[in-house]
Design a protein that fits this description.
5-stranded mixed β-sheet; alpha+beta
Length: about 80
């Protein structure tokens, strides 16, 4: 049984994209600023957690959860 990775996607205070925040990331957070930043951020979190269960929450400017994604790790033991 693997622990669940928890990710938060929050808009930056300077309005220049989104931060991907998690304790499992090597540097704690990543910045995404391109037009499709949210989908790229969700994709990265799913890829980074490919062998773990993951919960990815997307927040709006006021701190409310607007989307939740759950990913079941797809790594299989031999």
């Amino acid at each position: 049984m693997h622990p669940t990775h928890v990710y938060e996607i929050r808009p930056r205070k300077d309005k220049r994209g989104f931060d991907l925040i998690s304790d499992v990331l090597p540097f704690g957070r990543l910045w995404y600023g391109e037009p499709n930043a949210i989908s790229n951020t969700v994709g990265y979190a799913k890829f980074y957690s490919r062998s773990h269960h993951a919960v990815i929450r997307v927040y709006d400017d006021t701190g409310n959860v607007i989307e939740t994604h759950e990913h079941k790790g797809d790594f299989k033991e031999w």
